[in-house]
Amino acid sequence: MDIGASVPGRYWHVLSDGRVQCDLCPRECKLHEGQRGLCFVRARENGGIVLTTYGRSSGFCLDPIEKKPLNHFLPGTAVLSFGTAGCNLTCKFCQNWDISKARAHDRLQQQASPEAIAQAAVASGARSVAFTYNDPVIFLEYAVDVAAACREAGVKTVAVTAGYIGKSARPEFFAAMDAANIDLKGFTESFYHKLCTGSLDAVLDTLLYVKHETKTWLEITTLLIPGENDSSQEVGALSEWVVERLGPDVPLHFTAFHPDWKMRDIAPTPASTLKRAREIARDAGLRYVYTGNIHDEAGQSTYCHGCGSRLIGRDGYTITGWGLDARGACAACGESCPGTFEPSPGRWGARRAPLVIAAA
């Protein structure tokens, strides 16, 4: 594959009027020759769809896996993280808007083949590679190829995504991922329509698919925005849906909003809002509920649902305690803890280390 060049895209068909419909996501952009989809990185070229950002990245970095956030997937280990440019949602509150909203490729300063990324992960000691910063759904062909190279090298893969993906593309995409954190941005169609120009139902459908039809480890994140999706009623409805449709063992992260992109006039989320949301979700029956983007060691630690013992202590992105046995069960009572665990936690801590990967 020619790194840095446009490559043929998948999931599209020609309409009766001559336009080409992109089927990668629920937007189903219908394009004339030379036009780009809303994501900006998928375009019509020579009668088909191409991905214009294959092999190109906004940068590579070693992060703690807890930053994705994933709390039940190789705790304490480093994950090699990267993204490209563009997005298929238009969230006014985007916290990575300088990357995801980029409509030019000048953000994409690094190039790397799938094999080079896998080799860099092995050399750096990262246990996984994360497709993050912008949504990997829109660079599916690149993400799937990187995932294949990682599996050859014994490295796991993680998708950090909004879950806004078409039904035809879901099987290939999630079959390539060992874990996913899916943003459930709100729990009303009006929220998705007003702030994301998207659809809640499409995301719920993806969550159901990942949980019940794949082997991909699933965690969920909801960014709570004051006055928009943080009411007790909405948090309660969201939590009850997760319990009833996905099960009590799916970890749910409530994270704090900070003013950004087109919502700079909204105040940051108070810590009390996140703690209240955690209690509502726990009362609804969820066993593993976390707070993020605030200092809250109790709300970021993992507890045994059998005896209440602390299984994994966390202070931010740092592991402070370990109560799991070699089987990934509570050392105090033997109750299993769902997730992917190694006999002992990683020691990466809260470090963030930028990487430069050779293009070859």
Q: What share of residues is helical? A: 10-25%
CATH class of the largest domain: Alpha Beta
The helix/strand series, from N terminus to C terminus, equals EEEEEEEEEHEHEHEHEHHEHEHEHEEEE
User: Main sheet?
Assistant: 9 strands, mixed
Give the strand line-up of the largest sheet: 16-15-14-13-12-11-9-8-20
Question: Can you put this structure into words, describing what you see?
Answer:
The chain is an alpha/beta fold and 360 residues long. The chain has two domains: 7-51, no CATH class; 57-294 and 335-355, TIM Barrel (Alpha-Beta Barrel). Helices cover 25% and strands 23% of the residues. It has helices at 97-100, 114-124, 140-152, 170-175, 189-196, 200-213, 232-246, 271-284, 297-300; strands at residues 7-8, 12-14, 20-22, 30-31, 42-45, 48-51, 56-57, 59-64, 78-83, 110-111, 128-131, 156-161, 179-183, 217-224, 252-256, 289-292, 302-303, 310-315, 318-322, 353-355. A nine-stranded mixed beta sheet has the order 16-15-14-13-12-11-9-8-20. It has a three-stranded antiparallel beta sheet with strand order 1-6-5, with no helix packed on it. It is globular and about 60 Å long. It starts with 6 loop residues before the first strand and ends in a 5-residue tail after the last strand.
